[in-house]
Design a protein that fits this description.
It contains 11 helices and no strands. It has about 220 residues and is mainly α. It has a domain at about 150-220: Alpha Horseshoe (Serine Threonine Protein Phosphatase 5, Tetratricopeptide repeat).
Length: about 220
């Protein structure tokens, strides 16, 4: 008789037996250790119970749903709520690449380059090539390179931007991210080239107008 996966209730019991579990935070990737969050165990108990009820113990399906919800709220600018959803997805299925990707994106937005790149690296091994993921990964590398003053990271980011341009020439977001990285490295003329290319794509009207105005301030549009 084949072995069955442990139920969510068994998983919950194992987690709650861990003395560190009451000191973790739903706002950090993978419930990163944080003292003073003593009530989180109760929240996680509810999460797992709800998943058990809604998805009949199907952790993979529940994890996918929680990750999808995380992306919805992240696109609405609700990073903390999104992290909670991605953590729930990860709790249910540790190798959920979409959840790890989401965590990495939030950490990049929070200005935490090391944490972000670690999560993107994990997600990359699970997701493989996906245009949207590749765009976000290149952006994370550029943000890390700028923040840390790391030329190798910046070179890798620019390399990925160029590769993505070859594979997905109509990606407005890739061109915008490329322009922003050039802007932060003082390459204003090159940044304008990418802005113009981005504005010529089908979704060019979605360009970040605030960024374009900042670039205009540094160097008038050629």
């Amino acid at each position: 008789m084949p072995r069955t996966a442990p139920t969510l209730s068994i998983l919950l019991a194992a987690l709650l037996c861990n003395p560190l579990f009451a000191q973790i935070s739903a706002l950090l990737p993978k419930y990163g250790a944080q003292a003073g969050d003593a009530n989180l165990a109760v929240e996680v108990q509810k999460v797992l119970a709800d998943a058990e009820a809604q998805f009949h113990g199907d952790r993979k399906r529940a994890s996918a749903e929680f990750a999808a919800r995380g992306w919805v709220v992240l696109r609405q600018g609700k990073g903390d709520e999104a992290m909670q959803r991605f953590n729930q997805a990860w709790l249910l299925q540790g190798h959920n690449g979409n959840a790890l990707w989401g965590m990495g994106q939030i950490e990049a937005n929070r200005g935490k380059p090391a944490e972000s790149l670690k999560l993107f690296g994990e997600a990359n091994r699970l997701i493989g090539f996906d245009v949207d993921f590749a765009v976000d990964y290149a952006r994370a590398l550029s943000l890390a390179g700028v923040k840390l003053g790391d030329k190798k990271l910046l070179d890798e980011a620019f390399k990925r931007f160029a590769q993505l341009q070859a594979r997905a020439p109509q990606s407005t977001l890739n061109l915008q991210n490329w322009a922003i990285a050039l802007y932060y490295t003082g390459q204003y003329a090159a940044a304008w080239d990418k802005v113009k290319a981005a504005q010529a794509t089908p979704r060019g009207a979605e360009m970040d107008k605030k960024f374009v105005a900042e670039l205009q301030f540094k160097m008038p549009r050629p």
